[in-house]
Write a structure and sequence with these properties.
Layout: H1 3-17, H2 29-38, H3 44-57, H4 61-66, H5 69-76, H6 83-106, H7 123-127, H8 134-145, H9 154-163, H10 173-186, H11 192-205, H12 224-228, E1 244-254, E2 259-264, E3 275-282, H13 289-304, E4 311-317, E5 321-331, E6 342-345, H14 356-366
Parallel strand pairs: 1-5
Antiparallel strand pairs: 1-3, 2-3, 2-6, 4-5
Length: 367
């Protein structure tokens, strides 16, 4: 392959087809880092709104570091993979604290015009931030500082596997090292910012997972998978892990004043630090007879008050778990006393961060 010709054709396509996105209009490492964390396992169309909201609320890394974690989680609500938000907040605090220390140690006078926060400026420093892996560190290093590091997301793995007709399984540590070496051969050492932007965009918009328009592809002459008719077979992934089934039974207690009980998940499990209703987790989908009887009594009681209550069932797929969840609204004259719960009005639930599953149930039950 003539690498210079490959880059030329790629850049021509990129300049004519690239999307206008706010994080491409800046070299501010904070804004680029924020966009990369938001866009992990998230479509651009969905992530854009969250990015704009975060920038509006937290325009600098200092603002993000000064926020309470609950506020960050609430703003993140609906994006899923909440560990990203927790790590984002934790990393902001680390950046501010370490940046202030470095700057203060260099200050020789009372001159205060210096920026007191030094955002990490090397791949190694970026890689040490909570929630930042090789891809994110490479993306920030190249997009913010134009350093020659690959930015390897799923789109890039797909393009490389097809260009080289490479059957290496890409989502293993060995596979990642293999494709990183291929990418480094193509990487534009003079303008890595442009190269990484272009190849990622090409994979996102043109060299798509299914039914790419190979007959019109500007990189067709470089693509061995096209020549060998293997495009639709690539890239290769490792077999998916079997999903673990979990059965979560939520009770939404509702008193006469439309107050309910919620509690915050603190254990190291799914949805850590998010809020939820009173929960009983069982080994299967059947609740005990005692609980079922209590449901019917309270539902009947609420019906006499002129309010119809519901029980909803959902199946929700996470990366390694299949969640079977039921949400049962139970009427009561007064809320029960349950340890580690908080009484809130139904109308005030918007002030708390819930999982996407719970938000879906609330939308069905109360809107």
């Amino acid at each position: 392959m003539n690498i210079d010709n490959f880059r030329y054709e790629l850049y021509q396509w990129y300049e004519a087809n690239k999307r206008l996105l706010p994080w491409r209009e800046t070299q501010d490492p904070y804004k680029i880092w924020l966009s990369e964390i938001i866009l992990q396992q998230t479509r651009v169309a969905q992530g854009l709104d969250y990015y704009l909201r975060f920038i509006d609320r937290f325009p600098t890394v200092q603002d993000l570091a000064a926020a309470e974690e609950d506020e960050v989680l609430l703003l993140w609500q609906g994006l899923g993979y909440y560990s990203r938000a927790r790590n984002l907040h934790k990393a902001a605090i680390e950046i501010v604290e370490s940046g202030e220390f470095r700057v203060e140690s260099r200050m020789e006078s009372l001159e205060l015009k210096v920026d007191r926060v030094g955002f990490p400026k090397t791949f190694e420093e970026l890689r040490q931030l909570p929630g930042v892996g090789d891809y994110t560190a490479g993306a920030i290093a190249s997009f913010a500082y134009n350093m020659p590091f690959p930015a390897m997301d799923g789109n890039v793995y797909r393009v490389l596997s097809r260009i080289y007709d490479d059957e290496t399984v890409f989502d293993t540590e060995a596979g990642k090292r293999h494709f990183r070496a291929l990418d480094e051969q193509l990487l534009d050492q003079t303008n890595p910012r442009l190269f990484n932007s272009a190849i990622m965009e090409f994979g996102a918009l043109y060299c798509v997972p299914q039914n790419p328009e190979c007959e019109q592809c500007p990189l067709q002459r470089f693509c061995l998978a096209y020549a060998h008719h293997t495009v639709e077979l690539l890239p290769l992934r490792k077999p998916k892990n079997e999903l673990k089934d979990r059965y979560l039974n939520y009770i939404i207690y509702l008193d006469k004043a439309d107050n309910t009980l919620i509690h915050q998940r603190t254990e190291k499990d799914i949805w850590q630090h998010l809020w939820e209703f009173v929960l009983t987790e069982t080994q299967n989908s059947k609740l005990s007879n005692k609980t079922a009887s209590l449901n019917s009594i309270r539902l009947a009681d609420r019906a006499r008050q002129g309010r119809e209550l519901s029980t909803l069932n959902f199946t929700h797929i996470l990366s390694h778990q299949r969640i079977h969840a039921s949400f049962s609204v139970q009427s009561c004259s007064e809320l029960p006393t349950i340890e580690n719960t908080k009484q809130v009005a139904i109308k005030d639930l918007d002030n708390y961060a819930f999982s996407r599953l719970t938000l879906k149930a609330l939308q069905r039950l109360f809107h």
